[in-house]
Write a structure and sequence with these properties.
The complex is a heterodimer.
Chain A lengths: L9 H15 L3 E12 L5 E6 L4 E6 L1 H4 L11 E11 L4 E11 L2 H17 L17 E6 L4 H13 L4 E6 L7 H15 L4 E6 L4 H4 L5 H9 L4 E5 L7 H5 L2 E2 L3 H41 L4 H51 L1 H6 L4 E4 L2 E2 L10 E6 L2 E6 L9
Parallel strand pairs in A: 3-5, 6-7, 6-8, 8-9, 9-10
Antiparallel strand pairs in A: 1-2, 1-4, 2-3, 4-5, 11-12, 11-13, 13-14
Chain B lengths: L2 H16 L4 H24 L4 E7 L2 E6 L2
Antiparallel strand pairs in B: 1-2
The chains are: A alpha/beta, B alpha+beta.
């Protein structure tokens, strides 16, 4: 393409420049001072980077800005990594940042890393020298800033959960060049005083530079030398200081340190409350059991129980009555039969039967003639089947039979 | 009786209550258990935690209440 004679459209030109720019600077490191920082609601950051004489537009989109561990402010010296791009609508170019660190941060991290290796080599971080954290510390020394958020966080937690220990604050600076000396002094003082049976070295979150005193070699050494167990709670979850490694116990935040020292009281309170709940639960269960046994004896149940017994008895009585009547009539029937047969016997012996067969009964003055002194002319009574006859004896012939 | 002794006793009472014991005995245990629990709770609440600060001035170190 002959550029001298070619007539560009604006878009065409910007497109050519865009291609050249973006392919020439796809990934660069840039240091500068933040100015005109404008975070958008969308999470994207718009700002400029400048030095003494020059300035460049910068943008950091949300997916990248989310990963930056600090909040940029104007005047802050930073190091960014990114690519150049052309914004054709405005004809401006800018750097699209993919990461941002505080200027010098990388060097600090490197320095801490080297120090860590050295101190680890001296055995400062060995696990087998860790002292046991007392469960019910008598008095806890807190080495921190008396005005810092860390102390407030700890006090808030132990007020909420209760704490069986007294607290003694050893005030010190927690950032800046004088901080390490202050922390070391208080650690040594606490060990000399020997008033506390647990120490907490703590501060809230901050930049790597802010947290630097807690990776100071002298501070780490005095934690290592402490006869009193030390808990380290520096910064927030993601921050790790060399203090954390040297301490007997590391917590992620100052609040977590508060939880550790109130754990004993908290556990005891929970235990007592749990036992109380158990007692109430058990007694209720027992009462319920007894009540359900007693409920058999309420008025209604007793009535119906009585009624059913009574009904049974009534039926039983009726049955007995019935069978008695039956037996009685059976007996009477038997008696009747006996009577009839007796009558028959009697009848068979009656003279009437003899009369029927033709015999008759002869008597004299109402007596059997067998026993009478008879003579001719006496009047005899004769009974026979059909009636009575009076007859006069005409002749008498006595003869023994 | 110390705090620990009371706590131990409360634990024992709760254990015994779990057994199948006569109701009257249960109620006696329950009442003495609840009394113990209340005493323990009161004791836990009464543990006054002193928060002090070590102050350094021209006279040396001294301890003050922390406000």
């Amino acid at each position: 393409m002959n550029l001298n004679n070619h007539l560009f459209s604006v878009s065409e030109l910007n497109n050519v420049i865009k291609t050249i720019l973006e392919s020439s600077f796809p990934e660069i490191n840039l240091e500068g001072e933040i100015s005109n920082f404008r975070p958008a609601a969308s999470g994207h950051w718009y700002f400029s980077l400048r030095d003494k004489d020059s300035i460049i537009s910068s943008v950091m989109f949300r997916n990248s800005s989310q990963r930056v561990s600090f909040k940029p402010t104007d005047g802050m010296k930073v190091k960014v990594r990114g690519k150049l791009s052309l914004y054709s609508q405005r004809g401006t170019y800018q750097i699209v940042c993919s990461s941002m660190t505080l200027f010098g941060e990388g060097d600090l991290l490197l320095m801490i890393e080297e120090r860590k290796r050295k101190l680890a080599g001296l055995g400062y971080f060995d696990q087998d020298i860790k002292k046991l954290i007392p469960r019910f510390p008598r008095k806890v020394g807190i080495i921190t800033s008396p005005t810092g958020a860390a102390l407030q966080d700890i006090l808030k937690v132990i007020n909420r959960r209760g704490c069986l220990s007294d607290i003694l604050i050893y005030p010190t600076l927690v950032q800046g060049l004088d901080a390490p000396r202050g922390i070391v002094n208080q650690l040594e003082k606490a060990n000399r005083d020997n008033l506390c049976d647990l120490l907490i070295v703590t501060r809230g979150g901050g930049s790597i530079e802010d947290l630097l005193p807690f990776s100071d070699e002298g501070v780490v050494r005095s934690i290592y030398n402490s006869n009193i167990p030390v808990i380290s709670g520096v910064g927030h979850e993601i921050d790790t200081s060399l203090c954390d490694l040297a301490a007997d116990f590391r917590v992620a935040t100052p609040s977590a340190a508060g939880e550790v020292i109130s754990e004993g009281a908290f556990a005891l309170t929970n235990k007592v409350q749990g036992l109380k709940k158990d007692l109430i639960h058990i007694i209720n269960a027992k009462l319920l059991k007894v009540r359900s046994k007693l409920s058999i004896f309420n008025r209604e149940n007793v009535n119906s129980l009585f009624r059913s017994k009574l009904e049974n008895l009534t039926i039983h009585l009726d049955n007995l009555k019935q069978s008695l009547i039956q037996k009685q009539s059976l007996i009477m029937q038997k008696d009747k039969n006996r009577l009839i047969s007796a009558q028959k016997v009697l009848l068979s012996l009656s003279p009437v039967e003899l009369f029927k067969r033709g015999y008759s009964w002869v008597s004299y003055n109402g007596k059997s003639i067998n026993r009478a002194e008879l003579k001719s002319g006496d009047i005899l009574d004769i009974k026979y089947l059909k009636g009575d006859i009076k007859s006069e004896i005409q002749s008498l012939n006595k003869e023994n039979i | 009786m110390s705090f620990e002794e009371k706590l131990k006793k409360l634990e024992n009472i709760t254990e015994k209550m779990r057994d199948d014991i006569p109701l009257e005995e249960s109620i006696e245990f329950f009442e003495s258990g609840m009394k113990l629990a209340k005493e323990l709770e009161d004791k836990l609440n009464s543990f006054e935690k002193r928060v002090e600060i070590l102050v350094q001035d021209e006279n040396g170190d001294h301890i003050e209440d922390f406000k």
